[in-house]
């Protein structure tokens, strides 16, 4: 989400102020820091980065420094008090006002602060996205209204709202016109999407997926992130009838013990989550799953953690985004004593990650000998003479191939499996996910 927001800032300032990105920060006239406050560590990094930028401003007093994103939203004016050399503070919902704020600083020589939530206005003010390559993000909803007890997002990004359907689908058509073949629909809980059409109908996330998949040129559709509560039958049916929807799902569970899920205010039980996965696997047997886990939530006992491990064992995950619980000011969980000793949290996290890595290796090994359709991203970073791309189940594959395959689908026979990646032999390009080698 932040990567997407940062690219929108760059697109916008390129259009309004002909601002181009520099490679070296020392060459810049404007430095913008887009921040995350989901965990304390990310938040702490903001002030150490600003400290480094202060030295650049000492050398170049005309340098404009701006701080955006969730830390800006949460701390507001405090940022300018703690770091008086910061000129602009803007939130995730006011990044479209950056040009005006930049003018205020440069022309009126005042500081600019705007961390309000004007919601939909943002998208109306942003230029259509420009992409290089064949993959693009499309933001379909913003904010979060789930109010999980540990999470700051509803307070920093505002409550959930969905972009109008016509705007989303127009953006997808424009991207397809620029050569995009894979779109990743973005939002905090994308499957909560309910978008209005111009004639006041409401489109669900499942229907949006069908519309997006039907756009000529779009051969792959992904989405990030979803919430287990919005997995209705219509969404499960899309896995059955829409081959463009990839066979990989990131579905955050957070914990495996109902007691902890309740304290987290997740609104579901471990059994409910398992049932969603069972329904999904019935519709799409080869789907691979990744998840978010929070380790050491206040009061997490050995038994609670064992229940998380048991859920992992039962479901079989491909990857995890697992982190030690971080107390966030202003959230209900911050009132609970953060009582699990750090040693225990670290031990549990290492155990969980080691088990998921083992599972990922097993999945890679089971793919050896299979033929996979890969969307080629470009040369491999490790060996630029080779190509790399992603399979339908989101694994990176390296293989030897022609440079004009970049941006195309190629069928690859898998020859070796590693934890999260594969090696293969190319069988040749294919038109799209469902076609034979041409
Ligand atoms: N759709 C997602 C869901 O179902 O929760 C929302 C994504 S959330 C903004 C990103 C992830 O950050 C969460 O899934 C959670 O694992 C992690 N996270 C949020 N607050 C956290 C905290 N206080 N400590 C540790 N991890 C946290």
Uncertain parts: none
* Overall pLDDT confidence: 93
Helix coverage percent: 25-40%
Strand order of the largest sheet: 15-16-17-19-18
Put simply, the count of helices is 14
Question: What separation lies between the terminal Cα atoms?
Answer: 36 Å
Strand residue percentage: 15-25%
Whole-angstrom Rg = 23 Å
The helix/strand class is alpha/beta
Largest sheet, in brief, is: 5 strands, mixed, barrel
Give the key terms.
438 residues, alpha/beta, five-stranded mixed barrel, binds S-adenosylmethionine
Describe it for me?
- The chain has helices at residues 2-17, 40-59, 69-75, 77-82, 98-108, 121-125, 153-157, 165-177, 205-213, 233-241, 258-263, 270-283, 302-315, 342-367; strands at 30-35, 64-68, 88-90, 112-114, 135-139, 141-142, 161-162, 182-186, 194-196, 202-204, 220-224, 248-250, 288-295, 319-324, 371-379, 387-390, 396-399, 409-417, 421-430.
- With 438 residues, it is α/β, with parallel strands linked by helices.
- The structure holds S-adenosylmethionine.
In short:
The protein has 438 residues and is α/β, with parallel strands linked by helices. The protein contains 14 helices and 19 strands.
Blueprint of the fold:
Blueprint: H1 2-17, E1 30-35, H2 40-59, E2 64-68, H3 69-75, H4 77-82, E3 88-90, H5 98-108, E4 112-114, H6 121-125, E5 135-139, E6 141-142, H7 153-157, E7 161-162, H8 165-177, E8 182-186, E9 194-196, E10 202-204, H9 205-213, E11 220-224, H10 233-241, E12 248-250, H11 258-263, H12 270-283, E13 288-295, H13 302-315, E14 319-324, H14 342-367, E15 371-379, E16 387-390, E17 396-399, E18 409-417, E19 421-430
Parallel strand pairs: 1-2, 2-3, 3-4, 5-8, 8-11, 12-13, 13-14, 17-19
Antiparallel strand pairs: 6-7, 9-10, 15-16, 15-18, 16-17, 18-19
Helix pairs in contact: 9-10
The structure holds S-adenosylmethionine.
